[in-house]
Structures are given as structure tokens and as C-alpha cells.
Task: structure prediction
Amino acid sequence: MAQRQFDVIVIGGGNAALSAALTARQAGATCLVLERAPRHFRGGNSRHTRNLRCAHATATDVLEDAYSEDEFLSDLLRVTGDTDPALARLVVRQSAGCVSWMQQFGVRFQRSLRGTLHLARTNAFFLGGGKALMNTYFAAAARLGVEVLYDADVVGLDVRNGRFHSATVRVDGELTVIPGNAVVLAAGGFEANVDWLREIWGDAADRFIIRGTPFNTGTILKLMFEAGAQPIGDARQCHAVAVDARAPQFDGGIVTRLDSIPFGIVVNRDGDRFYDEGEDIWPKRYAIWGGLIARQPDQTAFSILDAKAAGCFIPPMFPPIMADSIADLAAAVDLPASRLEATIERFNSSVRPGHYDDRTLDDCRTEGLDPDKTHWARRLDTPPYLAYPLRPGITFTYLGLSVNQRTAVVMQDDTPASNIYAAGEIMAGNVLRRGYLAGIGMTIGTVFGRIAGAEAAQHATH
Amino acid sequence: MPPTDLIAHGTHVMSVCNACRYCEQYCPVFPAMERRRTFTAADLNYLANLCHGCGECLYACQYAPPHVFDINVPQTLASIRVASYQEYAWPRFLAVAFRRSSLTTAIAFAAGLTATLLLARASTPVAVAGDFYAVVPHDVMVGVFGGVMVFVLIAITIGLTRYWRDQGGRVPVSRRALADMLTLRHLHASGMDCATAEQQRTPWRRWFHHATFYGFLLCVASTTVAAIYHVVFGWVAPYGYGSVPVILGTVGGLGLLVGPAGLLATRTRRDPALSDSATARLDESFIVMLFLTSLTGLLLLAMRTQPVMGLLLAAHLGVVLAMFVTLPYGKFVHALYRAAALFKAAREGALDVQ
Result:
């Protein structure tokens, strides 16, 4: 490895990184991927993903119906509000080509979806999920002659005046300086860096659960800020969902997520409700609950259900805590019993009659509560009662590197770096300022990964 | 792993899988799993017998070891599968054979060979070359094999009945499931051949299994036709090289030579993580048994007029006897329990998602 010069160095080993590496290699560039994780845990957060969102004009073998660019864009704007309009338009437009581009490497997709998020029209699902995708990518990379170094922790970047010269990488305790003509930064956000999270969230960060890889500690992000790159996005903003409080601190992935929230109520540590659990259909709301719980005392909440909710949502990995009375349930999860009973009594008496239908925005709602539950409100009156303890589960952070439409990293003087490109989580904040739209993380990774790979190869070989 | 730990681990694995569901289009195990929210021992036995032991879900798994969740579906279900064979076996004390398959096989071979050599008329080998019944009288052959056959049928029927009952009674025969069995559709149902190691997909496991299965059927057909010749028409073996029993037996025998040899060869490139050692030994014992059955049979056919015929016949009958006697206590039972599992999956609609 020592002293070899590569046309393109890709830092990271997830979907964005491999999209860049495969594209650069196909364009004729020599390419080295520096993956910080060991081989077993390669693939960054892409390992835990399942699908990507893509626009399409007609039904295909992997997507139902049609999903126009305009509809995609308006869905995106609705969740994120502020965005870089040009980059948002770019990712939406180029999303349409992602499926066939992936398929050329042998990536396989599901034929339809049977899960609960009802995304068959908007999202293409990887057969076997994101790890199968990454295995296929790494196999294609090996076939094409992309070199991959695992356990490769990049600890230094030689960047002077917006120009990359080399990366210093630690493998097995040995430091090596690897020069490159261009670099693609696809090393993820800083969601697994608890110290950094603590700087932003205070002690609350100690109770965050990191849903994905423990390797996304934001090293590259920090090195680039130090080298004069322009930040984008709010450090507090992230994709965060409600996860089971019993989840491991890292890498729990999809199985710790709770999709039970619309079917009951959610109370905080004090036994009080704090947000409309039935505000909108779940795929449009699941990603706000991480942030909502993060702002509750002790970053703790409980999803409370009764027997009617059984079978309504995908059973999570951890079983519910069950009891035959609200008081017993409160005792079992250490909530103040009288307060919880009062909350539920008030809730039950506020439920208006309606026709329950969990597939539409039905007319089952409460009246006179603060906050009201505006859909799917049913009295909690049928034992056994169920509780799931909730914590904020961070998927990825939005503070990132500002890029232009060629994915070139923008420096503090507003000029683009000459040979530094970024893709994936590390620059997702250009498009996503807040909120989340299911599957768009992988679209951002694929679209900007391909652009970054092509641009880097173009720069490096000319 | 003791059975209770195995069931506890199986429940853990299925609870994680049921919350994830990324693998739901690989095979019927996952759609069948999704129809449940909790997993009893009987559920796990069903899912274990529905698993055909490919590696797709292991390599796709974000929770595969060394992840702390420790999810290895093919290996866990393989262990549960072998435990289920033992649970349903009759008589119970012979269930130990599943755990000690190499020893069982060796004892069965030794016993089979000893029995046939004792039955053979040692005084008459050379003079009557070509006449099997001069070596082992027909009535003795029929008596011994008939007796073994009856025992095997009883043992298998009781085992299958126990399994059936454990699974909640009647499961109607399904044409769809039958077609899946005859074509081994699930070994390539997600659109490509299943993986036997990471990113390694070949059709060979499927083709060699076909050769073994259909070879076995042809050999059974050959024996059946021969029995009809003897009993109904009074035509006594040996039969000519162009006769139906010999043609069926030869073609079937070749299948039963190539198939098991190929299966053994493909196993050398199979990821050991997909199974456990007890299952691997069980598989290999049965494969070797089938191979030797065919090898001795074909050698006997080729040299039936030679002086060595007497010895070859004794060897062949000994091997066949060993194979039959161990049928209810070896890999053979997978055919029955897997068939029952597929019928149940068909009824549940779990075959339809692929």
C-alpha cells in the first residue's frame, strides 16, 4: 500500500462511497476505498437500510404505479422546509436512474412490499436489504479492480488551499500517508460520536441510542472544518425515530424501532401526553418522534396501548410490558400510577365517535385535549394494557459539508475545492435541513456518490 | 446446545427476524414467520423443516455474528431441524442415532454385511455365477428385507404422525408444494441460485440433488418392477441388460452415483457457518450410504457372471440393508418433514410471495 498513488481515494464504505468508487473505476480511474469498519461490519449505515426513494413515470417490476419528480419534490419540501433547491431538484431528477444503475452491478430488488410503511409506489426495496446491497457492491468493486482497505481509520487529511494531497490512515496501529489526485468524502455523519452529541444536546445525549454503525464519529467532517470547509445544516437536526429503550447503544438497526405510536398514546416520564400521536400517516411522521422524545425529561417516553392494538404493527424485537390494569402497568414501567390513570381517563372521555380505519386519515379523534389526538383515537379500555419504553434513536446527523452541484466541497471563501468531493450523509444537510422522507438517504448517497465518483475521476485522470 | 436453550435461541432469532423482515422474499421461511407473532417449539420445528439451508439470509443479515444479536438463521434452524428429527423419532431410544450418525452408519454397515454373509450359502459361490438366489435364497432375501421394510414403514409413519400432530393436524396435499419439491424451486426461487457461500451462487447443489432424488426413485422403481416380474409373472432374476428393471436400475444407479458424489463435492465449498457439525455429519452419512448402495449395485450388475458375484451380492445387500435400517434415523426423513412443512406453507399462503 505504501507510497502508491491513486487517482481517486474514497473515504467511507457505505452506499455513497461505493457508488463513487464504482463510477470512478468505470471511468478508468484507479481507486482505493478506505473503510474504517472491519469487513464484517462494512457498509456504514447502508448496512441497516432497506430501500431508496425514486421517481418513475410508470410502474416497473420493482415499483408500483408512478411517482413524478414534482410529487417527489413536494414530498421532500413538505418534510424539510428549507433546502438547496438546485441540489434538491438534482437528487429528485437523478433518482429515476438509480435502480437500473444499481442493477448493472447485480443488485437485486424485491418485487413488492408487504411491510407496514406502504412504500411500494415510492421506494424500491433491496432484496435482502442494505447489507445484501453492500455485499453486491463490494463484489463488483473487487471484479472491477477497486482496492478496498478495511479497518482503515483516516486520522489526517492534507488539504491546503482547497486542494487535497493525501490522507493519513491508521491500520493496525501503523500510520500510512496515501496520496491521491482526488478524494471523495463519504464517511457519514457524526451520530456515533457521543462527545460531539453532548456538546450540542448536553447530558441528554447520554440517553440517545445510535441506530447504526459505531464508526460514524464525524472524524472526516471535523478534519474538513479544520481545513476550512464551509459547514451546512443545523447541528441539532438529524433523522431520529422512537426506538425501544432496551436497544443496544449502537447498531440495533431496524428491529428496535417502534411503529406502535399511532395505535395508542405516548406519555413522558411524568405520565403526560405531549404530542398528537395521530397527526398524519405513520410513514410521514415516524421520523419526528426521535426529536420529540429527545426534548422530554430524561429523554424517556412510553407508548401505551391496549389489547385492540395487537397485530396492528410489526412486532418489534423486544416484547411489550403487559398488565391487566393501568395501575399495574404504571408500576411495571415505573410511571406515576395516578397521573397515568388520570391521563388515560381524560383521553378516553375525550374520544369522539368515529369509524376507525388505520389505512386512511380517519375521523376517530379526541376533542378538548392539549394536545388532541387527531386520528385513530380509540379508548384505552381493553386489557391487557401494553407499554413499550421509548428513547430517541439517531439514524444520522444533518450538519455537513456544503457542496455545489458537482458535489465539490465549498470552502469558507465560497469557492469550491479543486479535487475534494462529498457524498452521502456527510453532505445530506444540503438537501435535508430537518425532517426525513423514508428512503431519501440512500437516494442522496447514490445520486451524489455517482456524481462525486465521475467528477473525481474526471479531475484525476485529466 | 440443550433443546431448551436451542428453542430459546430460536425464539430470539425469529423475534429479531420478524421485526426486520428484510429477507421476506428469499424463501417461504420468512412469510411463514410473518404469520406468527410468538414462536412455540412446534412453530420452530415447522420453520426449521421449511428452511432448505441456503445462505442468502445469513449473508444479507445486518445482525449476523459477530453482531451482538447473533442471528444465523440457517445454522439455528439446522440445529432445530435435527433436534426435531429426534423428537419425533420412533422408537424414542433410537433417536440417539441422529446425534451419533457416523457411529450409527458404521454399525449399520457392519451389521448389514455380517447378516448377509451369514445368510449367504458359503458353499455355492463359483459354480452358480449369475444366480443370485443360489447365494442368498429368494425366500430369505424377501423375508429379511420385507421384515426390515415393514419396520421402517412403521417407524417412519409414526414419526411423521407425531410431526403432523405437533403441527396441528390435517395438512392438505398441495399441488403447488408438490411441484416445488419436484423442481426444487426454492433453491432458485429468489431469481438466482441460492448462495452456498458469500456471493457464491452455483446451480450444482440443485442439479446434484435432482440426480440423487430421481436416481433414488428410479432404483425404487427398478426393484418394484423386478418384484412384479417375480411374483406376478414368475420371471426370476437375473434379468437381461435390456430389461426394464436393469435399465431403470442402471440409470437410477448412475444418478445415485453422480448425485451423491456431486453433493459431497459441493459441500467442500459450502460455508460451514450455514450448518452445525451434527447436521453436517448426518447429511454426509446419508450421502455416503446412497453412494455405496449405488456403487455396489452397479458393480454387481457389471460382474454378475464373475466368480466375485457372491461377495458383491453380499456387499450390496449388506449396504442396502444398512441403508434401509437407518432410513428413519437419518437425513432421509428430511424428505418427509420438509414435504409436510411445504404443504403447510402452501395452506398458509407462504409459498406465494416469491
